[in-house]
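2024-03-11 09:14:02 DEBUG pipeline.ingest accepted 1 chain
2024-03-11 09:14:02 DEBUG pipeline.ingest length=232
2024-03-11 09:14:03 DEBUG pipeline.predict start
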Amino acid sequence: MYTLYIGNKNYSSWSLRPWILMTQLGIPFQEVLVPFNEPGYPAFSSFSPTSKVPCLHDAATRVWDSLSIAEYLAEKHKGVWPADATARAWARSAAAEMHSGFSAIRNACSMTCGVRLKLNGISPDVKRDLDRLSTLWSEGLTRFGGPFLAGPAFTAVDAFYCPVAFRVQSYGLELPQPAADYVKRLLSLEGMKAWYAAALKEPWRDLPHEEEIVSMATVTQDLRVKPAKQPA
């Protein structure tokens, strides 16, 4: 069985991608959550060559980086990418665009599932990213018939945009149709609901993540359990 090492569910958008992909496709795996709780996260070096999450272990094979994990799984399991060649090419391109792009949204709207915030302002770069998201999603949903980005089934391209759905929810970002309904569709997935419920129950707080969140937005509601007492 695979072992998937992840970080905090409240913060780790990168961890969510392979986790939700494997969960929604019914690929069995053991989850090992290692919290962000020390500067530089030295504990991660014991399981990840880059000291980052996520990292997938398959016996002696280690696969790091969320996109590499998706491609590794695609070699072993059906349904990771669409069966249709045209849809598959589009899905891979859209996933890669998310993997390497949308830096304005990443920087301004750090993922924090259990917190509700109001951005201090929508910069031109964030607006540009939101417009591109809407255009890209509308293209996929229209071209391949929905309800997911590359057709009737949830695939890796949807997994790569699941963190965006949490960002839209947390920061109250406004998107036009059909993008807004697509966000609701992702949030209603059983795997997404399970991830969200677990994120709310996490007692850990990572100071760099918390500082990043409040540097760009005002907290209006914190739905998480009370934090664990930090070591002196």
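2024-03-11 09:14:41 DEBUG pipeline.report The mean pLDDT is 96.
2024-03-11 09:14:41 DEBUG pipeline.predict end
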